[in-house]
């Protein structure tokens, strides 16, 4: 199931699609670039030296791109289940001099970690980074992913999960204020009205004839997705990371419920 992604449509303007992806993601996350920068700053301080990194649920590779530009000797494994986003990432960025491998795999399939371990051939990861992604799997699957990461990372390695992660359910006021602030920040300022949205971006992608094949594959791969669960909150994620063998877990950056959760293996 794991395979290197092949891109076959040289006339598609991959770089433009990647730029439009970044723009629409930033529409919902005004602090997106700051958050990426903090993640890389944390890596620089916490894990100096050459890095072997997993960009987990990478999409078209926002973390991989920024990380490899900041750390010239780093190597990244960029894993995602979406063949369209992987094709855009690989089409726009290539392998960045052989330093990024694009991997199609699905975190809901428990065998993903064995396949990754085979690919690593006995090497352990120095860091695992994720942005705006792990809420796409249920809390049960997420706990399993964290368990696997515990086995794939070296002692002292760093996990960073940048996402909206809510405070514990009994902190009702804090949760409610955070969610109101999040909604307020998502209200577009007039100068950005008309900017491309998530839905608009996907509608535009669907009009790209040369992507028909990967779009059909995407529809098949993601057809199971129903998202009936409540997203895993801070307490759940911290507990699951500790159970998985991470010795320290805390929020290292935060803006309301948008945070970077950091765990040290
Ligand atoms: C909003 S995108 C974020 C992508 C990228 N990290 C970024 O910040 O631009 C969420 C990503 O999670 C991926 N994803 C969701 N469920 C997944 C799963 N079960 N296995 C692997 N990737 C998954 C999606 O395909 C998508 O690329």
Structure write-up:
The protein has 265 residues and is an alpha/beta fold. Helices cover 44% and strands 19% of the residues. It contains 10 helices and 7 strands. It has a 7-stranded mixed β-sheet with strand order 3-2-1-4-5-7-6, with helices on both faces. Helix 1 packs across helix 4 and helix 6 packs parallel to helix 10. The protein is globular, with a radius of gyration of 18 Å. The chain starts with 13 loop residues before the first helix and ends with a strand. The mean pLDDT is 93.
Which features would summarize this protein structure in a list?
265 residues, alpha/beta, 10 helices
Count of DSSP helices?
10
Strand order of the largest sheet: 3-2-1-4-5-7-6
The geometry reads as: globular
Mean pLDDT: 93
Strand content: 15-25%
Number of strands: 7
Radius of gyration: 18 Å
Ligand catalogue: S-adenosylmethionine
Report low-confidence residues grouped into runs of 5 or more.
none
The residue fraction in helices comes out at 40-55%
Outline the biggest β-sheet: 7 strands, mixed
Structural class: alpha/beta
Helix and strand pattern: HHEHEHEHEHEHHHHEE
In whole angstroms, the N-to-C terminal distance is 28 Å
Break the fold down into its secondary structure elements and pairings.
Layout: H1 14-28, H2 32-46, E1 52-56, H3 62-70, E2 75-80, H4 83-93, E3 100-104, H5 112-120, E4 125-131, H6 139-152, E5 153-164, H7 172-186, H8 198-206, H9 212-221, H10 234-243, E6 248-255, E7 258-264
Parallel strand pairs: 1-2, 1-4, 2-3, 4-5
Antiparallel strand pairs: 5-7, 6-7
Helix pairs in contact: 1-4, 6-10
This protein binds S-adenosylmethionine.
S-adenosylmethionine is lined by residues 25, 57-59, 62-63, 80-82, 85, 106-108, 131-133, 136-137.
């Amino acid at each position: 199931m794991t395979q290197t992604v092949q891109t076959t449509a040289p006339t598609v303007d991959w770089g433009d699609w990647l730029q439009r992806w970044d723009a629409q993601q930033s529409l919902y996350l005004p602090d997106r670039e700051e958050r990426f920068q903090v993640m890389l700053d944390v890596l620089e301080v916490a894990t100096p030296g050459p890095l072997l990194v997993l960009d987990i649920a990478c999409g078209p590779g926002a973390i991989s791109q920024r990380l490899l530009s900041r750390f010239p000797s780093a190597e990244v494994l960029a894993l995602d289940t979406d063949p369209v986003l992987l094709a855009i990432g690989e089409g726009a960025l290539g392998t960045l001099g052989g330093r990024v491998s694009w991997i199609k795999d699905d975190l809901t399939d428990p065998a993903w970690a064995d396949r990754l371990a085979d690919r690593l051939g006995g090497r352990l990861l120095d860091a695992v980074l994720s942005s705006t992604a792990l809420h796409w799997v249920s809390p049960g699957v997420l706990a399993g992913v964290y368990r696997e990461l515990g086995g794939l990372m070296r002692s002292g390695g760093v996990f960073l999960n940048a996402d909206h992660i809510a405070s514990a359910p009994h902190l009702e006021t804090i949760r409610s204020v955070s969610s109101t602030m999040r909604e307020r920040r998502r209200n577009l300022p007039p100068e950005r009205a008309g900017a491309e949205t998530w839905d608009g971006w996907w509608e535009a992608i669907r009009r790209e004839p040369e992507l028909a094949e990967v779009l059909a594959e995407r529809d098949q791969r993601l057809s199971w997705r129903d998202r009936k669960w409540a997203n895993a909150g801070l307490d759940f994620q911290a507990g699951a990371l500790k159970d998985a063998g991470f010795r320290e877990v805390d929020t290292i950056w935060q803006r309301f419920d948008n945070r970077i959760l950091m765990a040290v293996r």
